[in-house]
Amino acid sequence: MTSTVPALGTRTAEGSALQAVLLDMDGTLVDTEGFWWDVETEVFASLGHTLDDSWRHVVVGGPMTRSAGFLIEATGADITLAELSVLLNDGFEQRIGRDLPLMPGAARLLAELTAHEIPTALVSASHRRIIDRVLKSLGPQHFALTVAGDEVPRTKPHPDPYLAAAAGLGVDPARCAVVEDTATGVAAAEAAGCRVVAVPSVAPITPAARRTVVASLEEVDLPFLRGLMTHMR
């Protein structure tokens, strides 16, 4: 867990119960979920295996240990989890070095949160080496804290990453709004007690208690996030 700018503490706007915004990375802020699948497909092709497209929904949004482990078991590939993880991270780094598109509304939302001094954390299942590369495109100045999947005892769908982010910012998880794009990430945020905005990228996500589903980040702004807190149960 690395602080990228001085933490802003628990300062909130007057009259707002929102203490912090915690954001997922892949598929939420940057349009990279497809990149991961492309890299996985290429790596397994080099090993002599073809991935079934239906597996994409299984591996999306999860930690590399889970997704890579599933693909090894499903294909029977003769490779260890550690070896595969290196190949996948290397391939992904090369891919984002060529192109890293932001999701619609991401740049505007980050700028708005920064302008209003809302404590914001980037919380990803991706490894630190990947997060640090992506931060160059997102702008490290927008985040008081970043949490990588290889820096917590248990990553998503466990609550540990979001609990670590809230603790690092000095805020109450129940007063945090989380923005996620996968069921795995949503499960982690809800297990941590956060309010969730789901912006589905690959697989559908249904609305539920303490969870709001939107079609795009273009629907999400600071008044929207503050409004989530006023409807807390």
TrEMBL record:
InterPro entries per the UniProt record, alphabetical: HAD-like_sf (IPR036412), HAD-SF_hydro_IA (IPR006439), HAD_sf (IPR023214), PGP-like_dom2 (IPR023198)
Domain of life: Bacteria
PANTHER family tied to this protein: 2-DEOXYGLUCOSE-6-PHOSPHATE PHOSPHATASE 2, PSEUDOURIDINE-5'-PHOSPHATASE
Name of the protein described by the UniProt record: HAD family phosphatase
Source organism of the structure: Streptomyces hyderabadensis
